[in-house]
Design brief:
about 300 residues, 3-stranded mixed sheet
Length: about 300
């Protein structure tokens, strides 16, 4: 699949991205093709499984821009490995602006696509940008408080103390001008890591690409409970697809279901699997992609090519 390396500015950094031009077909209009803007989940990079989704979209006739947040992967920005929701939301908005400027892209048919942590980000971005044509939130972290509560129930008081101390150490260090205090992004249950659900270490590392690093700044532990993007869903006026893994141990499906119920034009799909089972090579990937393509075809295909739901 042909893809082009591009960059765009976000704040004082550059973000690196792949642009996949869409194949000619049912989505073409005189104004151009739709473009799907996508980024990965918590601490992940674009080379960790996003290509499987992007290639399916491009083959179907949609352009794709898949990018790394500043401080991650091959994007610029300092400090590194800091999962800051506010900065990542700014990166998403910058990616949307860059996609709208691409040759052959219809700027009024931009699709937001996010998985896991980014699945929450796209709710915030779509709510603030009524020009966004459609949004796909795949196994989204819609409520950081619910996610933190799930971790607390699994890891107990000792786990909460470990993460709180790590978060405070990182925050205080940043006040003193020190580099980020990095902890493992994913680890075995009972260890100091951001994702410690049973099987998460094996699942995450099996999909990780060469630019991924198994570390993240500890301040994320303190920021997670206050990040609740699902509350923005009621302001999303365009079509929204929310795809839930009903056995999700990393992003509580109930919180995402609640967020979807607030959106006036939401469609919800359920899959009897865990958080990582929707990635390429896993059992529910093809079904998830098929539902995404059907959703986008209904809402974004040229009028003469569109079919009833």
């Amino acid at each position: 699949m042909n893809r082009i390396e591009i960059t765009f500015a976000s704040a004082e950094a550059h973000c690196a991205a792949w642009h996949y031009p869409g194949s000619p077909g049912r989505f073409d209009t005189p104004a151009g093709r739709p473009c799907v803007v996508m980024a990965h989940g918590f601490g992940a990079t674009r080379d960790g499984g996003l290509d499987g989704f992007a290639e399916a979209f491009a083959t179907a006739g949609l352009d794709v821009v898949a990018f790394d947040y500043r401080g991650f992967g091959t994007s610029g920005g300092e400090p590194r490995q800091v999962a800051d929701p506010a900065a990542q939301l700014a990166d998403y908005r910058a990616a949307v602006a860059a996609a709208r400027r691409l040759n052959g892209v219809d700027p009024e048919r931009i699709v937001l696509w996010g998985v896991s942590f980014a699945g929450g980000h796209v709710l915030e971005v779509a709510a603030a940008d009524p020009r966004v044509a459609a949004t796909v939130a795949l196994t989204p972290v819609a409520d950081g408080l619910a996610a933190a509560s799930s971790i607390f129930r699994r890891e107990g008081v000792s786990g909460a103390l470990r993460t709180t101390v790590a978060g405070l150490r990182d925050v205080v260090g940043s006040w003193l001008g020190r580099p980020p205090y990095l902890v493992r992004l994913t680890g075995a249950p009972g260890t100091l890591a951001a994702l410690t659900a049973p099987g998460a270490l094996e699942d995450y590392t099996s999909m990780a690409g060469p630019t991924w690093r198994n570390e993240v700044a500890g301040r994320a532990f303190l920021r997670l409970p206050t990040y609740r993007p699902g509350r923005a869903a009621r302001r999303i006026v365009r079509p929204l697809l929310v795809q839930l893994a009903d056995l999700d141990q990393s992003a509580p499906a109930g919180a995402a279901q609640t967020a979807a119920s607030r959106a006036p034009r939401a469609e919800v799909r359920h899959y009897p699997c865990d958080h990582f089972d929707i990635y390429p090579g896993r059992g529910w990937h093809e079904a998830a992609v098929a539902h995404q393509l059907a959703f986008l075809h209904r809402h974004l295909a040229a009028a003469e090519a569109a079919t009833p739901s």
